[in-house]
Amino acid sequence: MPSPCKRCAATRLINLDTAHRIGVVSGCLVGGAIGAFRAAAANQTLSLATARFPLATIGAVAGGQSGVRLTSSLFAQWLPPGTGTPWLCLACGHTFRQSYPPLAAAH
Questions:
Q1: Contacts (Cβ under 8 Å, ≥6 apart) of 52
Q2: pLDDT tens track for 25-65
C-alpha cells in the first residue's frame, strides 16, 4: 500500500506499472480490432471477404503493434525518474516513486 500523495496528501493512487500493463494489452486489442476491421471491411460478397482474411490478419497484427507502441510512449512520458514503484495521484496528477525497505530475513 502506498503512502499518501506527497503533494496533496490524497490516498487515491494508482500503480503506474499495473496501469502500463493494462494499457499495453488494451492498446494491442483495440489496435488489432481496428486493423482487422479496416482490412476486412468491404461491401463485397462472402467469397471475396473470405479471400481477404489474410489481409485482415496482417492488419490486426500491424494495428496491435501500433497500439502497443503508442501506449508505451505515452507511459514513458508519465513515469517519474528514479527507482522504486511508480505511483500516480488521481486527485492532483502528481507522479512519484516509492521505495520500500527490504524485508528482513526469516530466522
A1: 39, 40, 42, 44
A2: 887 888 777 777 766 665 555 555 566 667 677 777 777 78
- The answer to whether the CB of 7 falls within 8 A of the CB of 89 is yes
What is the residue type of 62?
A
pTM of the model: 0.60
How far is residue 102's CA from residue 105's CA, in Å, rounded to a whole number?
9
Nearest to 15 by CA among 103, 69, 92, 96: 96
Segment (H or E) for 79: none
Distance of CA 68 to the CA centre of its chain: 7
CA distances (Å), origin 74, targets 27, 54, 71, 78: 11, 31, 5, 7
- Name the one residue in this structure whose C-alpha cell is 508505451: 72
- Whether residue 71 contacts residue 27, with contact meaning beta carbons closer than 8 Å, is answered with yes
5: helix, strand or coil: coil
